[in-house]
Design brief:
CATH class of the largest domain: Alpha Beta
Largest sheet: 4 strands, mixed
Radius of gyration: 26 Å
Strand order of the largest sheet: 2-1-6-4
CATH topology of the largest domain: Ubiquitin-like (UB roll)
Number of domains: 2
Length: 131
Protein backbone atom coordinates (compact mmCIF):
# COMPACT_ATOMS: atom_id res chain seq x y z
CA UNK A 1 0.00 0.00 0.00
CA UNK A 2 1.12 3.54 -0.79
CA UNK A 3 0.38 6.54 1.39
CA UNK A 4 0.28 10.34 1.45
CA UNK A 5 1.02 12.22 4.66
CA UNK A 6 -1.16 15.30 5.09
CA UNK A 7 -1.75 17.91 7.73
CA UNK A 8 -4.08 20.84 7.95
CA UNK A 9 -2.32 24.20 7.93
CA UNK A 10 -3.35 24.92 11.53
CA UNK A 11 -2.32 21.53 12.94
CA UNK A 12 1.06 20.28 14.08
CA UNK A 13 0.88 16.56 13.29
CA UNK A 14 0.53 14.70 10.02
CA UNK A 15 -2.17 12.13 9.25
CA UNK A 16 -2.02 9.47 6.56
CA UNK A 17 -4.28 8.27 3.75
CA UNK A 18 -3.51 5.03 1.95
CA UNK A 19 -4.10 4.02 -1.67
CA UNK A 20 -2.78 1.53 -4.20
CA UNK A 21 -0.40 2.58 -6.96
CA UNK A 22 2.52 4.94 -7.39
CA UNK A 23 0.50 8.19 -7.33
CA UNK A 24 -2.97 9.54 -6.63
CA UNK A 25 -4.99 12.20 -8.42
CA UNK A 26 -5.74 15.41 -6.55
CA UNK A 27 -9.47 14.73 -6.76
CA UNK A 28 -9.10 11.26 -5.22
CA UNK A 29 -6.83 12.62 -2.48
CA UNK A 30 -9.36 15.33 -1.61
CA UNK A 31 -12.13 12.72 -1.41
CA UNK A 32 -10.08 10.47 0.87
CA UNK A 33 -9.13 13.36 3.18
CA UNK A 34 -12.70 14.68 3.33
CA UNK A 35 -14.02 11.19 4.11
CA UNK A 36 -11.41 10.62 6.83
CA UNK A 37 -11.96 14.08 8.40
CA UNK A 38 -15.78 13.79 8.02
CA UNK A 39 -16.04 16.99 5.97
CA UNK A 40 -18.94 17.66 3.60
CA UNK A 41 -18.16 18.64 0.02
CA UNK A 42 -21.07 21.12 0.01
CA UNK A 43 -19.57 23.15 2.88
CA UNK A 44 -15.95 23.51 1.79
CA UNK A 45 -13.24 22.61 -0.68
CA UNK A 46 -9.65 21.69 0.03
CA UNK A 47 -6.57 23.52 -1.21
CA UNK A 48 -3.61 21.14 -1.24
CA UNK A 49 0.03 22.13 -1.61
CA UNK A 50 3.40 20.41 -1.39
CA UNK A 51 4.76 20.77 2.16
CA UNK A 52 8.36 21.20 1.00
CA UNK A 53 8.03 23.43 -2.08
CA UNK A 54 4.78 25.21 -1.02
CA UNK A 55 3.57 24.71 -4.62
CA UNK A 56 -0.21 24.35 -4.86
CA UNK A 57 -1.43 21.30 -6.77
CA UNK A 58 -3.77 21.93 -9.71
CA UNK A 59 -6.83 19.83 -10.52
CA UNK A 60 -5.05 17.56 -13.02
CA UNK A 61 -2.03 16.86 -10.78
CA UNK A 62 -0.86 13.42 -9.78
CA UNK A 63 0.68 13.34 -6.32
CA UNK A 64 3.43 10.73 -5.86
CA UNK A 65 3.28 8.23 -3.01
CA UNK A 66 4.97 9.13 0.29
CA UNK A 67 4.50 12.88 -0.34
CA UNK A 68 3.94 15.40 2.44
CA UNK A 69 1.11 17.85 1.72
CA UNK A 70 -0.48 20.80 3.50
CA UNK A 71 -4.28 21.08 3.41
CA UNK A 72 -6.30 24.27 3.77
CA UNK A 73 -10.07 24.42 3.95
CA UNK A 74 -11.60 27.06 1.70
CA UNK A 75 -15.26 28.01 1.10
CA UNK A 76 -17.06 25.83 -1.43
CA UNK A 77 -17.39 28.76 -3.86
CA UNK A 78 -13.69 29.63 -3.59
CA UNK A 79 -12.00 32.48 -1.79
CA UNK A 80 -13.73 35.81 -2.26
CA UNK A 81 -11.76 39.03 -2.55
CA UNK A 82 -12.24 41.55 0.22
CA UNK A 83 -12.15 45.29 -0.20
CA UNK A 84 -11.77 48.10 2.29
CA UNK A 85 -14.13 50.52 0.61
CA UNK A 86 -17.30 52.09 1.93
CA UNK A 87 -20.35 49.86 1.72
CA UNK A 88 -23.35 51.62 0.25
CA UNK A 89 -26.87 50.44 -0.44
CA UNK A 90 -28.05 50.14 -4.05
CA UNK A 91 -29.78 53.23 -5.45
CA UNK A 92 -33.17 51.49 -5.20
CA UNK A 93 -32.70 51.00 -1.43
CA UNK A 94 -31.37 54.43 -0.51
CA UNK A 95 -33.38 56.57 1.85
CA UNK A 96 -33.22 60.29 1.08
CA UNK A 97 -31.16 62.13 3.71
CA UNK A 98 -29.75 58.94 5.27
CA UNK A 99 -26.02 58.43 5.61
CA UNK A 100 -24.34 55.55 3.82
CA UNK A 101 -23.01 52.58 5.78
CA UNK A 102 -19.28 52.53 6.46
CA UNK A 103 -16.99 49.54 6.58
CA UNK A 104 -15.43 48.38 9.85
CA UNK A 105 -12.10 49.78 8.75
CA UNK A 106 -13.31 53.35 9.26
CA UNK A 107 -11.37 55.03 12.06
CA UNK A 108 -13.22 55.55 15.31
CA UNK A 109 -11.71 59.01 15.77
CA UNK A 110 -14.62 60.69 13.97
CA UNK A 111 -16.99 59.34 16.59
CA UNK A 112 -14.92 60.57 19.52
CA UNK A 113 -14.66 64.02 17.96
CA UNK A 114 -18.45 64.19 17.71
CA UNK A 115 -18.71 63.23 21.39
CA UNK A 116 -16.21 65.92 22.41
CA UNK A 117 -18.30 68.59 20.64
CA UNK A 118 -21.45 67.41 22.41
CA UNK A 119 -22.31 69.88 25.24
CA UNK A 120 -23.28 67.08 27.62
CA UNK A 121 -20.04 65.08 27.17
CA UNK A 122 -18.12 66.76 30.07
CA UNK A 123 -20.56 65.04 32.44
CA UNK A 124 -19.52 61.63 31.08
CA UNK A 125 -15.77 61.77 31.51
CA UNK A 126 -13.80 58.65 30.67
CA UNK A 127 -11.45 59.23 33.61
CA UNK A 128 -12.67 57.88 36.91
CA UNK A 129 -11.57 59.89 39.97
CA UNK A 130 -13.35 57.93 42.72
CA UNK A 131 -13.49 54.22 43.42
Amino acid sequence: MSCIHYKFFSKLDYDTVTFSGFDISLCDLKCKIMRKEKLKAANCDLQISNAQTKEEYTEDALIPKNSLVIVKRIPAGGVKATSKTDVTAPQSHKIPGAASFRSRTEPVSRTSEAVRKNPISPFFSTHCTEF
